[in-house]
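Format notes (please read before filing issues)

Several people have asked whether sequences and structure tokens are stored in separate files. They are not. Every record keeps both together, in the order shown below: the sequence lines, then the token lines. Line labels are part of the format and must not be stripped during preprocessing.
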Amino acid sequence: MSQYVQPTPQAAGEPPVVEQDHRVVGGGLRILQFLAGAAGAVLFVMGLIAVFRVDFGVSLVETTAAVAGFGFSAAMAIAAIVLGGAVMASAFADQDRGGTAFVGLVTLLVGIVGLIAEGQIPDEVGVDTRSASLFVGIGAVVFVLALMPWWSRRRVTTVTR
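Then the structure lines:
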């Protein structure tokens, strides 16, 4: 897409004037940023639903509720709300890729700790393997999406008059 610029007549002997116009093309919400935020939204919404279904009268780490087939304890529901909200905030607020990558790694770590705890201490900690895998999956997706640049194309128009 080109635009013709009518040259301004110059007086004889004057040096030409060069003007550059820098414009952002394709600004707005980028798809990778949106996908990272959407992954955080999934975790956030699941945590919100789970927090109303879990039984806070028992141990915080005992699985007492299920959301979409994923078992949640009170601690996992709270972690889902906090980490999902942090992913959304870091992905959508000020396009902070470094913060989004960090929160993605923390989410991944929470899932891995859940998987390890489920196999090591089965009587004391009731971690659902599927919900821990959900944290691992969402954390990994957010981390990888944050590593990819959320750029916009720039167009520079140079006019010599």
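For reference, the curators noted about this record: The mean pLDDT is 79. The two ends are 21 Å apart (CA to CA).
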